[in-house]
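Researcher: Please predict.
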Amino acid sequence: MNKPLISVIIPVFNGERFIAEAIQSVLNQNYEPLEIIVIDDGSTDGTADLVKSIEGNIRYFYKQNGGTAAARNMGLSLAKSGQIAFIDDDDVWVDNKLSLQMEQFNQFPETEVVIGFLLPVRTVNQASIDAVQETNNKGALVLSLGSILVKKSVFDKIGVFDEELTLSEDTDWFFRVREADIKVRINKEIVQFYRLHDKNITHDKSQVMLFLLKAFKKSLDRRRKAGLNTGSSLLDFKNVDEIMEYWASK
């Protein structure tokens, strides 16, 4: 039986330092067919030449700088598949990320989003990955777009990423997933290595908090308008079982 195509969207801005490793981790997936869509959000470094030098089913598009949300939305508009995955230009996937999560869709057809675990690391290479696996590190369940596989139809239901949010557009999207009772499953395996480095955008704590508050406010306004519970949160869970119970709750 032919497997469905998966579209992998990679937004990038001045990402020549790490993007080759991110793309290679997608090319290394033990799943096919795949299409890789790189949206260059106005890079001024060597990102374009580097991406174009990599062989594989990679579609490269350049746009004027407009933020990560706008880049992801452009990628969505170009995607040919009904299954969408995202990876940031500085992160890396495990080789079975997509096959593992597609199996969740196959076993549970009602599922619309699968969320896996991630592991924050400072060095991403085969030696560091092997070392992590040997220690049986279980990783962490974080609401990260790089850890999900999602049916494209979800965006028809809840909309695309909010381009007003320079940061926390992913948090806002997860809020809307929950508010719309989208069917979510958790796979407890590590699927993403989240690279910690000196250029992580989350280092600017004041901006992170500002846009996180904006995302909460948008969620609160939507829930009030819809007459939904305004006291719930998607953050501060004690364990995986509690999160899974939360997603399953009405």
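Model: The domain at 6-248 is CATH 3.90.550.10 (Spore Coat Polysaccharide Biosynthesis Protein SpsA; Chain A).
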